[in-house]
Predict the structure.
Amino acid sequence: VNRLKQQLTLFTPSLKPWKTVRDQIGKLPEPDSLGSFDLEHVLRKGARIYPGHTGSYIDMPSKALKAGDHGVPGGENMIRYHDGRVRYYTTYEAKRIQTFPDNYKIFGSWTEAMRQIGNAVPVELSHHIADSLVKVI
């Protein structure tokens, strides 16, 4: 039984337990409504907090990104700052949260892009799972 438990361990002690939203997006410039940095990094207005729609604090791990742009999914795909501000993730930030490479392109509107990103398994997670499976097989 102990041997089996060792073989099925997914995480190695050298890995950090998590990354915060700031760890993933902290070096990006703040988005603006003009998309001057990148068209995937445009500020989308209208984010607000209400019951069941709380977003992720900047210095905590992100909640799971959900496929959608309004209702429960949209309300979760937000950043909460400690000063009370809240805003939606940009497409670029959402890709970073899901650990996509910066040069990976997502096509379509913001709604379509957030759906694609929300449906994705985080890239780093899939690598760790695959590596663990290879070791066991």
